[in-house]
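ugh ok fine here u go
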Amino acid sequence: MIELVLSLLIAATSIIEQHQPVRPNLPDQGYGWLINDLEQHTHAGHPMRNEQDPGNWAHELTHQVNSDLRQLTRANDGAFYWDHGEYCRLLYPNVTLAQVAGMVPRDKRGEFYHLYLIEMQRWWNNECLYVLDEATAYANGLQYHATTHTKDAHRLQGAKEFIDYSNALVAAVEKYDPDYK
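structure:
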């Protein structure tokens, strides 16, 4: 689902998918291909390992990989890791998180809305692509559960809501930064 939103953003902005180098020869972590893939795409010694909740491990590792990728790009880029070495790099539009929050229809404001789109304005208001950072993290957490045939209602709800919030991001860019490319 989130890949559809990201694909639409990529098509709309002509951004090319790129491959990130991996840590070669990393031993299998024993938690499936997604955890292994994410671990290979971040630096050694990160604090994200969570064997009690591997879905959270995948979610938080995605944030770490996204952060690592942002450090490798230009200052005004956001980076969002999918899997298998592929990620999307987008320039930040001239849009605030508050503007994105305002574009979410009231009937789409779920349990994650207040925390991620209102409270996080304190730290992320000038970085509206934060919505996609959370969207990819929830999607990868959910993907972990799908590939291991386990369930996690929290991550499912997060992934569903962030599709709506990603759509609000697109609407905010169209409204507030119509020349965004």
